[in-house]
Amino acid sequence: MKPELLDALGRIVGPRWVRHRRAELATFTMDGLPTRESYPGVVVMPVSSAEVREVVRLLYRTGVPFVARGAGTGLSGGAVADPGTVLITLTRMNRVIQVDPVRRRAVVQPGAINARLSEAAAPYGLHYVPDPSSQAACTVGGNVAENAGGPHCLKYGVTTNHVVELEVVLPDATVVRLGSPHGDPWGPDLVGLFVGSEGMFGIATEIVVRLEPLPASVRTMLADFPTVRGASEAVSAVIAAGIVPAAMEMMDRACVAAVEASIYAAGYPTDAAAVLLVELDGNADAVEVEAATVTGILRERGAREVRSASTPADRARLWQGRKKAFGAMGRIAPDLAVQDAVVPRSVLPDIMDRIAEIRDRHRLSISNVFHAGDGNLHPNISFDRHDPELAERVGVACREIMAACVAAGGSITGEHGVGSDKIDYMPWIFDPETLAAMRAVRRAFDPAERANPGKVIPLHACREWRAAPGVE
Amino acid sequence: MSDDVVFGRLRALLGSSGVERDADGVPRATPETAEALSLVCRLAHEEGWKIRVEGHASWLAPDAPADLAVSTRALDQVLSVSPADLVATVQAGAPMESLRRRLAEEGMWLAIDPPGRPDRTLGSVAATGTAGPLRQGFGPVRDHVLGCTVATGDGRLVRAGGRVVKNVAGYDLTKLQVGGFGGFGIIAEVHLRLRALPRADVTLVAHGQRDALSSAARDLVAANLLPGALELLSPALAAEAVWVLAARFVGTDAAVQADVRRLGADSGLAWQPLPAEKTAAFWGLVARGSLGGPITLRLGVLGDGVDDTLDLVAHDLDEGLVSAGPGAGMIRWTGEGPVERLRALRRAAAAREIPMTLERAPWPVRRALGHFGAYREGVGQVVARLRDSFDPGKCLSVALEGAE
Q: Which helix (H) or strand (E) holds B335?
């Protein structure tokens, strides 16, 4: 990076918030994906919307590309920047600006941590629903970029269903407000379009979200099954009965073994082929009756034991293993390839068989933890990235798993995003015309394609599409 | 362009059964597949013809100026349903009522109850984003659409989203199409997220003064008693002497019974349950009520602003046929009024940070006001660039913004 640019950035945010020495940049070379590593040219840390705007204006004038980054917990290599690119880190913009308990809205800065938002709303009996496993560390801005999900999205929806308004700095430093803090948006649904755009349309500098009441009553049930198929069928049977649980999460034998061998041991039966967590919430009387129905369904489908918890402490214990599953897997090997794919719920048992076959053929250790209610799989491969032969086999297996999910009518990502990790898979699910339409939409926000360049859209696979006017 | 030339070219493209003339003699294409629809758009783009899109013409009048009309009427098939996954793929011209019956046969339910007639097409509902009272419990139309296939103004087929309930691959182009009023292309097929047919479906009504009912509705929401629908209806819309607040609970028997018990205990209103056999007719009346005048508006406003906003509307226009969801944050008004009054209302609403969308009106009103308009600063340019990328030849005869 040119010294003049560093100086100019320093004049905007203060020199101590511009990092450019190699040792300083080392923290920012990766996100949660272990297989993509790159040093950014410089890291700049604005503290306000105004500073973000000035930084973006400077980069617009000088034609320098940029990547916005939150806590760096993303799992698709989306927040990694190359040496020609400025990394704009938003973690200093971490305030929950306002909680409005009457309208059930909160206004936050993009660097606000997901769990802090729910804590700020809790005194009013409210919470922010999307709860990715990384919620203690990940930022709401990052959640917006990735359209993050979480276990409780089965009933309540993902990030896009909870964001109502955004202040966005476009790549030409124009500031726009999209959506509306009230019910209906202004004009076309540009908030819906922006959420999940992986930092390629601009930088959200203020986010207005919907808060939901904390449920009056919650019941968590844990069932263990002798077969994965039985557990999968139980998931479909519960939903077919007209019951929409707040969450339905499954872990396979390898995952349970990892959890039980770790400090997060939750008392899960290690001899079960699958453990299913079902959470019901709502009116206490209704939860009681529905819990009985669900218990009946689980037993019918072969559950050996169904444990049930209603108090916060008991529920936390049942959830602990699920929430800490990724951490527990860290014990097994230095690196973890956390995969993310979606299949129609009805093909879950077949896909599980297929993943086991791929695992055995490539001699790998795979544990599965997933949002069974919406068919969102997380096959996790433990490995050591410094073993090139092993890393190669992991790469091939990931590709085969993804191909199997796509062949079953699924998608290449349910909540982690495409980033740089899955860009090669995009042509598997989108034709050239559609990829080109995506690129054209991106250019409506960012004609010069300077925001998070090189992610999500494989340019070579796009059919030629008419550029927006005023481009080039 | 002479009608005969357009007619002849369309017939060459689609065959004689794929083209007809409407009452005014305008050639009307009735493609049966998404591919055929895109070919019609490509032809129009190449020739510089203006296209008007129609479903069953029961919501928006087919009155936009155009060289040809494209009707989705023959695109009326349910292409696939999966009860195990609770998803379906349906062509845009399928009427909502026949879709509802088809899904119910297999124990499934689409939780959208749009205003208008039961034969309104799915494409019309998706393109205009017109959710009904069930928006309270089940969200706006966009929450039910997993993906869609769209023919752009220049005849490309874009396949947005997918058929799974959770999916973040690529940009969410579906969101632009749902509620885009056809300005970004013509929806040919829709992937829908469904629910299991609810085991219980109970509606209760209370009568009274408007402000008392809207205050009671806010109290219910504040007490977290959240029905599937909670709708405030004006006397004219409900065909009653006074305002009506209607609460509809859908779900499992246990959940519905528990909520109905709480409603009786918590609220000071005299709630009367509707007999089961009258429930469908009641909500059908509410839906058709929005056709009681030539113009329908929706305003985005949360519960604490409903009374003031209704006063504002009554002041600039009249009380009209109102269906409002104080919890969901939307007022739908139907009636009649001059363009100047409507424009003044949009300005006054915008000053209060309340968006006003023109849902339906005769073409001269749509052209003058636009479905949207009064964009916030900087947004209009983004919308214009998006439109240009989906309809570079400006073939789609849609007034997203007014002609101010």
A: strand B330-335
Which CATH number covers residue B21?
Answer: 3.30.43.10
For position B359, which CATH number holds? 3.30.70
Asked whether residue B285 falls in the same domain as residue B364, the answer is no
Nearest CA distance, A304 vs chain B (angstrom): 24
Nearest CA in chain A to B183: A188
Which chain A residues in 433-452 lie under 8 Å from chain B, judged by CB atoms?
433-438, 440-445, 447
Same domain, A138 and A33: no
Cα–Cα dist A249/A260, whole Å: 17
Rg (CA), chain B: 21
Average model confidence (pLDDT) for chain B?
Answer: 95
Which residue of chain A has the CA closest to B255? A286
| Strand partners of residue B71 | B54
**How high is the mean pLDDT of chain A?**
93
Residue B122 maps to which CATH number?
A: 3.30.465.10
Backbone phi and psi for residue A227, each to the nearest 5 degrees, phi listed first: -135, 150
The Cα–Cα gap between B121 and B55 comes to: 6
Same domain, A78 and A20: yes
What residues of A are in contact with residue B160 (Cβ under 8 Å)? Answer: 434, 437
Residues 6+ apart with CB under 8 A from B114: B96, B120, B125, B130, B131, B132, B141, B287
Instruction: Output the pLDDT for position B1.
Output: 62
Query: Is A374 within 8 Å of A347 (Cβ atoms)?
Result: no
Q: Do B107 and A445 touch (CB under 8 A)?
A: no
* Same domain, residue pair A179 and A113: yes
Write down the ipTM of this complex: 0.97
Of B163, B170, B379, the CB nearest to A187: B379
Chain B interface test: which of A126, A428, A441 (most B C-beta within 10 Å) = A441
Q: What residue numbers bound the domain in which A47 lies? A: 3-89
pLDDT digits (tens, 9 = 90+) for A393-447: 999 999 999 999 999 999 999 999 999 999 999 999 999 999 999 999 999 999 9
Half-sphere exposure of A110 (CA within 13 A, CB side): 32
Q: ∠ CA(B281), CA(B286), CA(B290), 5° rounding? A: 135
Q: Where are the beta strands (DSSP E) in B12-93?
A: 19-21, 27-29, 51-54, 68-71, 78-82, 87-91
